[in-house]
Structure formats: structure tokens, C-alpha cells
Amino acid sequence: MTISLRYAALSDIGRVRKKNQDSGYASSRLLIQADGMGGPPAGDVASAITVQTMRRLDEPVNGDLVEALAGAVHRANDRLSEMVESDPSVEGMGTTVDAILTDGTQVALAHIGDSRAYLLRDGLISQLTTDHTFVQTLVDEGRITLDEARTHPHRSLMIRALDGRNELEPDIVHLDVRPGDRIMLCSDGLSGFVEDHVIAQLMGAGSVDAAVVALVRAALDAGSNDNVTCILAEVVDEEFTAHHPLIVGAAAEQMSRGSDTSRQAPVIDDGDDEFRDPEEMRYAPLAPRRFRWVRRLIILAVILAAVGIGTKWLYDWTQRQYYVGEHEGQVVIFKGLDGSVVGFHLSDVYENPVPPLDVSTLNQVWRDRVDEGIEADDLADARKTVEDLRTTVTESNQPGQTPTGPTQSGPTSPGQSPSGQQSPSKQKNQGGRS
């Protein structure tokens, strides 16, 4: 079986809007619907650019459909970002996106925003997408019902849209379809005003051409105050047709003027100041990005400052560390950390005891300890360790004393002699000091 789409598309400016900010594209293998932002400038340009960028998918697909759709969405988002970078006057523009793509055997859907995709099978309708809106999060959390969501004052407040600001990941899924199924993509100018059971009835009525006209008319008759765009396709068991694709809405208007949408300047209405577009707050969460290069420099400066402060703190900390070790056969005090990083030593000789203390005069146990490095709490503790080592040498050289050998158990603390007894200096200190 070869899957193909029999399609129809229609976009209407509606009875309130001053320009159409929706764009649509339909062919036997690709459907795209984009609803430009109503309040911010250049919503029509955003939707048109998105459609013109993503329509490049309308060719044989090599590879996975999901990857192809995701790549097209990211390219469209990058194109919007380039537009804003080159022309600050279009800052704030954005669009929703719904796209259906088939390679003849599989069908995949990509979705961002609050435009919707529906599937009609055997007279039963199912919604294929989840609105990326504030109200939908309330529904998901069980705080309001679906009926309450339809009349909620902030029902159109979106939390995700294609706007060139961030690398947003679209919702992309594989669809299980069969011949006879009908798929519809529509803007919220239709889904927000026509009940699902009416949509189901009209989607399945007559040819796709007649059905798409009936759906748009139903939205207008229901009092839709938005642009209304509907793309309807029936899944058929046919080879891909050579019919010309349909382009509707802002994308078609841009092309009819013979302009390149990638460089199209926004058209800003200068109508009645008292007229407030009902969608003006639709994308309120999307704050404009002014002086992006300044922000990037500030962020970079903060990161470099943090690294510098951290490095300085680490260096100061190492300069408060001491240990006793061996250097050129002598017991010395090192400052820093006992070790190296990439061949760079983390310590230096800080003090040579006076008189010098030869490592060779120590018994084997203490030679090993000194060779490994004896940690100290501070400089005073390091000096005390040296004096304790000197004391062990003196004791071992006294008549009648047996030097402690390497057969003694485990390492001892600097305040103890290798035999396990406290050094004379330690005993003296514990003998009571007046």
C-alpha cells in the first residue's frame, strides 16, 4: 500500500482582523499550517517564512520522518532568528506550526503552539495535538475542566511558539493511519469557535474541497474574531500526484506580490488607536530580546569573573597548605599541595630547617613517611613535625637506645617516635607547663 494525501486548503482573514497572519501549504505528501502571532509585529511574515522554509520537505524523504520534520522546524526557527538579528523592528514575531509529512509508507506529525490537528476515522474524531497554552496546563493539572478551558479569559495565552528565540523541541509523533482517514490542520480561529462534534460532522461531509469550505464558514458563522485557516486531507492508497501544491494565507499573499518572504518587511497597521486586538496579550510571556550582543557580553563577563574568582580562591587556599618532605637529601618544609598536574608541580620548597636534617639519619619508617610527604595543619605544625623528626634522630643516637627499625607496625603520627612512644618533646610538653 502506498499512502498519499488528497488535499484542500482555505484561509480567510475573518471579520475582525485587518490582515491575515495565517499561512498554509498542502500537497500530496506535505501539509503545513502556521498561525502568526496576532499582537506583536510581523506575525504574517513569521508564518510565511515558516511555511516557505518547511515546504522544502515536499520531496522524497531519505531517512526518518521524525528527523526530517525536526530538522525543518529548527531551520524555520533559525530563519526567524536571522530575521530578528537583521531587523529589530520585527522583534517579537512568532508563529505556531503544525505539519504532516508522509513518505508513502508512514506518516508523522510535528506540533508547536495552539493550532490543532484532528483525525477523523469512521465518523469519530480525535485530537492529535496538545495545546501549548497556559490554560492547557491548568487542564492537565486538573484545576479546570475542558468546558471551562473553552471560555477561560486566558485560553489563548501560549507558553511555546516558534519565535527564533530558543531551540524549542516540537512535539513529533508517528501516526497510525489508513485509507479513508481524514486529517485536518487548523488555526485556533476555527478550533476555538466550533465544537468538536460539529467539526467531526463537517470533516466527513462530501469531498475534501467541500468540507474545507464548510469548516471555514462554520467558524465565521460562530463569531470567530480571528483569521481562519483549514487544511484538510484524506488518506488514499495512491501514488503521489503531480498536482501543484496549494499555498494559502499570508504565504500566498507574499508570493502574489512577487516578494521574497525571507526579506519581506512587516506591515504595521496604523488604524484606530482605540481598537485593541483581542490577541494582543496572546504571547505576553515572550519578552522581546533587545541588545542581544550586550547581554551575551555581560553573560561572558560574569562567567569569566566567576572562573577568575574561583581560580584566585583555589590559589590562595593552596598557599595555606604545608607539608614536610624530602629535597636533595634534606628534610624540608613545602608550601602548596603534594602532587602535580600535567607536569606542573603544585608546591615549592618554603623553608630549609636550621640546622639541616639529613633524611639518611632517619630510620627507615620515617624515611618512607618523609618521602611520601607528611601533611601539616599549618606552618607551625610543619615546623613541629621537623623538630619531632630531629628528636627521634637524637634519641636513636643516645647510648643504650635501640634504633627503631622498619619492622615496627604502621606509620605513626609526627608527635610519636617510630617505636610508638611519644617523642621526648611531646612528653615534656605533657609533663605540665607552669
Question: Can you give me a brief rundown of this structure?
Answer:
By secondary structure, the protein is of the alpha+beta class. The protein has helices spanning 43-54, 65-86, 134-140, 146-151, 188-191, 196-203, 208-221, 250-256, 292-318, 364-372, 379-397, 424-430, and strands at 3-12, 22-26, 30-35, 97-102, 107-112, 116-121, 124-127, 171-175, 182-186, 228-237, 246-249, 322-327, 330-341, 344-351, 374-376.
List the helices and strands and how they pair.
Blueprint: E1 3-12, E2 22-26, E3 30-35, H1 43-54, H2 65-86, E4 97-102, E5 107-112, E6 116-121, E7 124-127, H3 134-140, H4 146-151, E8 171-175, E9 182-186, H5 188-191, H6 196-203, H7 208-221, E10 228-237, E11 246-249, H8 250-256, H9 292-318, E12 322-327, E13 330-341, E14 344-351, H10 364-372, E15 374-376, H11 379-397, H12 424-430
